[in-house]
């Protein structure tokens, strides 16, 4: 029987796979539900998750706001996460951004020379010797709008192309420098998070995505591959129009395959020989609103569709707070059935 780490590698490479691996993104409210449901303090063994995360650690030099609900990220944007936010999820909202005009004048991207940025990798690997470890990468689109404000950024994409290029190039330099520091640390992959999709299409025209971002994403993905990392991306919504572009620039894994927004069978048929899809369980449908048996059937359907590999079974995004714990347990139940009789 393969280790969890080897099983994830096997599904990505589609070789010597014994079972489809699985993974959970959970909101903190769902974590508490599951701990009560299973009567455990630690869900690691209970859920059998195959992936462990390495968050991008913020250097100690970043000045924090005094308000406990506010957090300043390394790029200088300030986010609010309050009790209201945690009732719905863990995302919060952008409340302050550093670039008030389409200009980088007076703004400096963070230095990557601070020691300690990835010191926690060693401890995470020690705690998860059997897991496939993925680090959080520095993306371009979401960090761009966090620096400018979302509506402003979309306006700049349409009317300030020179500024957008300068801003994006600065983010690329920062992203590549941070990624290079992961080389040799025992991390298996990296996930760059940038939500490009609405429910039915990209937020910007595919042609604009290609002309504005494609070459820059190619560079950060090539940097990750040169550091020995499997390249995974996260984008909610329908990004089917650019799946061929992602293959072209070196993406190996796409998360979260979202059944409410993307045609799973089409994605598997057209792109499944090049991409590993990660997700597929309906976080807007079956998981919060179905029965445990509905969930079991959806898990079986996904395992059948992706029989042979190229798939990581998972909810299509963070499991929403209204999801019953029994529905998450149903995923674990069917996923673990694959392993019966192997040991």
What attributes does this structure have?
alpha/beta, TIM Barrel, three-stranded antiparallel beta sheet, globular
Account of the protein in words:
By secondary structure, the chain is of the alpha/beta class. The chain has a single domain, classed as TIM Barrel. Helix content is 42%, strand content 13%. The chain is built from 14 helices and ten strands. It has helices at residues 4-13, 28-38, 44-47, 83-88, 120-127, 141-148, 150-159, 161-180, 206-226, 243-248, 264-271, 286-289, 292-305, 325-337, and strands at 51-54, 70-72, 78-80, 93-96, 132-136, 189-193, 230-234, 253-257, 276-281, 311-315. The strands form two sheets. It has a seven-stranded parallel sheet. A three-stranded antiparallel sheet has the order 2-3-4, with no helix packed on it. The radius of gyration is 20 Å and the shape is globular.
Unreliable sequence segments: none
Shape: globular
Strand count? 10
Taking the sheet with the most strands, its summary is: 7 strands, parallel
Mean pLDDT across every amino acid position: 95
Percent helix among the residues? 40-55%
The whole-angstrom Rg is 20 Å
| Order of strands in the sheet with most strands | 1-5-6-7-8-9-10
What portion of residues belong to β-strands? 5-15%
The CATH class turns out to be Alpha Beta
Intertermini distance: 6 Å
Q: Which architecture name does CATH use? A: Alpha-Beta Barrel
Query: How many individual domains?
Result: 1
Query: What is the H/E order?
Result: HHHEEEHEHEHHHEHEHEHEHHEH
| CATH level-3 fold name | TIM Barrel
Overall structural class, as computed from helix and strand content, comes to alpha/beta
Number of helical runs? Answer: 14
